Amino acid sequence: MANKRILVIGGSGYIGKEIVKELISKNYNVTILSRSVKKDVISCNILNKEELIKKIKGFDLIIYLAAVIRTIKKSKYNQNIIGLSNTLESMKLNKITNIIYFSTQNVYLKKTGPYGNSKKLCEKLLVNSNLNYIILRPNYVYGIDKENDFYKLSIIIKNMHICPIYGRGNTNIQPVNKQDIAKTVVFLVEHFKAKSTFDLSGKTTISLNEISNYLAEKSNSWCIKVHIPMFLLKFFKIILPFDVDGLDIDRISILKNNPCKISSDLKKDLNNILKL
Question: Helix crossing, 208-218 with 149-160: angle to 10°?
């Protein structure tokens, strides 16, 4: 899909900015759609279908990252479904057939919260859309920056010598660097395989306890793990800005024959994060 016009919806977000940067470095013609009013950005609210239909004309591919991920007001997660539905209808009217959609590995959970449920419904919309879609399901995403939770946790460990952990801390995750995600997206743009789904997971499988131990060790510090019981989180889940149900279930890639081989080296990246 070289020399094609690409629209990145949610391109000003944490992962989106990295994808836009990588696409531009490969000389793709990239446009960002966001609610923000900025130079070189199409300003549009994806909840406004009439406005969206007018704004997304002339593109060959849409990369869709926009999502409500954390909010206390649970009804806002419905915006994930409405926004994608409006986008798919706008694509059909404007004869745009290709889309790369960012979902989540939360969809593997039998029981999840409003965010995970909204993503499950969004995937169904894509499957039934008759469009050429690729669904990407990332694990926990981080970058070599001060915005990720690993950096914030390291500061708490250094300054307060405590480490808050939900549940027993033995939940396994496969964190993935956003730079590797961006490179993978470019690969999929160049080798577009319609109606396919891929996990985006790093090569390291690690528990929350192991992460806290590593951060403390490499910080030449010590910490007391403060385990927050899951029953307590579930009791207060109505006021917590994230999905509590399934929070203590392993996030492990389960798709086989996945061509997205991501080489994120978590411990190497944690060392770089600690140098910030």
Answer: 60
Contact 100, 231 (CB under 8 A): no
15 three-state secondary structure: helix
- Among residues 36, 38, 58, 59, the alpha carbon closest in space to that of 46 is found at 36
Per domain, the residue ranges of the chain are 5-274
- Report which secondary-structure segment, H or E, holds 14: helix 14-25
Q: pTM higher than 0.90, yes or no?
A: yes
Phi, psi dihedral angles at 32 (to 5 degrees): -105, 135
Buried b (16+ CB within 10 A) or exposed e, 101-131: bbbbbbbbbeebbbbbbbbbebbebbeebeb
Burial (CB < 10 A; 0-12, 13-18, 19+), residue 135, is buried
- Reading phi first (left if > 0) and then psi (alpha if -120 to 50, else beta), residue 3 is in left
pLDDT of 94 reads 98
d(CA 117, CA 233): 19
Q: How far apart are CA 255 and CA 265, in angstroms?
A: 20
The answer, yes or no, to whether residue 147 has pLDDT greater than 80, is yes
**Residue among 175, 173, 230 nearest 207 (CA):** 173
Please give the pLDDT value at position 225.
97
DSSP 8-state secondary structure symbol assigned to residue 273: H
pLDDT digits over 78-88, tens only?
999 999 999 99
Tell me, what's the pLDDT at 263?
A: 84
User: What span, in angstroms and rounded, lies between the C-alpha atoms of 199 and 58?
Assistant: 29
Bridge partners (DSSP) of residue 137 are: 199
User: Topology of domain 5-274, per CATH?
Assistant: Rossmann fold (3.40.50)
